[in-house]
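Follow-up to my post from last week.
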Amino acid sequence: MDVYGFPAWLRVEHWINALFITLMVRSGIEILATHPKLYGRDDSRPGSEWARFTRKTMPKDKLYDTLDEEESYSPIISLPGHRNLGMGRHWHFFVAIGWVLAGVTYVALLFATGQWRRYIPTSWGILPQAWHDLLTYLSFRLPPHLPGEPFDALQKLAYALVIFVLAPVAILSGLAQSPAVDARFPWFLRLWGGRQRVRSLHFFVLLAFLAFTAVHLLMLAVWGWGRENSLMIFGHGDAPVGGLWVSLVIIAAIIGVNIAVTVWSLRRPRMVQRVLGAVVMALRRALLRPATSHQHYPKAAVAAQHRVNGKPPDSDTYKIMAVHDFAPWRLTVGGLVENPVVLTLEDLRALNTRQSQCVLHHCIQGWSSVGEWTGLPLRDLLDLVRPLPEARYICFLTMQDNGRDEPSAPGEGHFYEIIDLELAHHPQTLLAYEMNGEPLPIEHGAPLRLRLENQLGFKMAKWIHDIEFLSDYRLVGDGMGGWREDNVHFDMEVGI
Amino acid sequence: MTAGGHEIGRGPLTTVVMRYSGLGRLATLLEYFAFDLPRTTTAAGVTLMAGLAAAHAYLIDGGTADPAYLNVYRALIVTGSLVAIALMSLPGPARAGWRLGSLVSVVALAVYLASRTAGLPGMPLLAGRWDCPLGTVTMGVAALFLALHGSVLTGVNVAYPRRRDWYD
Amino acid sequence: MARPEVMPLGGSQRERVRARLRSEHTVCRACGGVDLVIGDALFLGFVFHSEPTDAYMIGLTCANPSCPARYTGIRLRAREFLDR
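User reply:
Got it. Predicted complex:
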């Protein structure tokens, strides 16, 4: 006789969890598709990956960027599929919030009701028992349940591992990929062996959940699909036929929800961006915005080859500026400021503050690289131009025209990104004109780019020529806070 | 064919098998998976071979009434597995080691399945006896080795001493 | 600090560029001045996707101090100015 039973809250949690896991796995695969390569080292050096899930090869005689490397996976395996990183991220984080809340509730109820004993063994004797159970399974027979419990010893250990080890590792290894967390607590990232190792570990967590689900379903079939589902649906095992049919209905519903959110995301991405983004961005703003960067990587960690996302302005004007070492270039700083200015590169260099920082770059696609950046702290530019009280945002306008320069990015128009004025005061927010001790290379944003160390890379506009202080970002472009937000539905607040 | 987008060498026999066995679609799918873990791959192959050797060494007669040919067969499997391990670990004959490992695995798998279906000479009672954990492990280990070698042949994995020449 | 992407030209290379400017009667597009100072070369072929793989931009500066746009350039292929 099972003394624990299957209380209603446990059954509800189980099926919610089943839905969340499917959405997490599919949106996770969408995120992986955007940079389908896994590395052991934080420099993500091209060719050094230990795994790749792509058929693409890159040219040797032309600059390629990581947008060229993106894969388009089928919606059958990814949410929503067809190369939609923005949508994949919205779903991954939105569902993650729900999944964590459900998980915390579940664990709290386990301990509040004494149900934790159904998973956590209280005697080392379970190990020889589990070994015996394994031999029994290998004999194609079913082992006995533990006395008064719903599982055999091996099952009990497996569930304990998934709930109390795998799920926390999934959450923590996800958090360890946040630029805000890693910038504020570099030791936390070191704990996992680095940015790319923790990304690889997160991938193994995905595989572990898939393997667990496969074995779980196999075990259900072996132990009796109808009876087991009767337990998890009705709370008793007396209605195997009902359990069979209702389980099929629930599975159909889970598939239906997956199809519905996929279609919604593909057809109405802006709506998904607004609805899910409202929840996700509010949480990010509250939890991750306050994280200031405290990164001081050793110079030895600087990557020999820093990957590139985005191609430089392919215009004669830009090329002529570049061949003259950007002598004709001017930076216009205006908008809601007391003292609008126009600066040359020499003016910027001559301003009395010059700051260097050796930091880890987090790309939204998942790759990373360490670089040393030198330039003018943005707060010092603020001191120079003195924003008016109504200024709340800063817009960085660039010379890059995506329709002309970036065949791998859908959308037209000049690239721009808008940040909250609050971020400008962070100590490592920098207008960089040098990289690794040399003038900022063309492919990395020459002559001037933004460094925003607690955010993802796409916010760090390159090839900047104009900085405008605004009261409201919704008046610019499509009103979502940047070119990527407008065109590929990324989030504006990207502390993770 | 490619692996991770890069051309890989393939023998004429494999090409013919891939083309005419209806595995073309599977092969296309496999092209999306490529790993550069030669030492891990070889270590996994060596471990599986060691498992196969151990399982058969354990069964070499210590006083039971198994026919003598069965012990000779087990000794051959153990020897074959150990030779395969040695060859796989050397840079020169590694490929021959993998082939020998697959041969040993196929034989072990076939003999085990035959023993549990048709029965073996002098051992008719084995037929239908699937409830032997060591036998299940033998089947699993042999099948996993074949799958691993298959992944090497199809370019999903590379084994020591080969490496990927990825530049991107 | 010199920009690594920019390549200084040698004497013979400058001569070939100068000859090219003469043969095409190149003048400053902003002021029409004929005195163009030849500067450095920037390799375009790798970084810019629209450019042929052997394209360069040669920097030209108009010597007229009152020119409204002194900085300009001419696009050449490698064989047109580099030593063989």
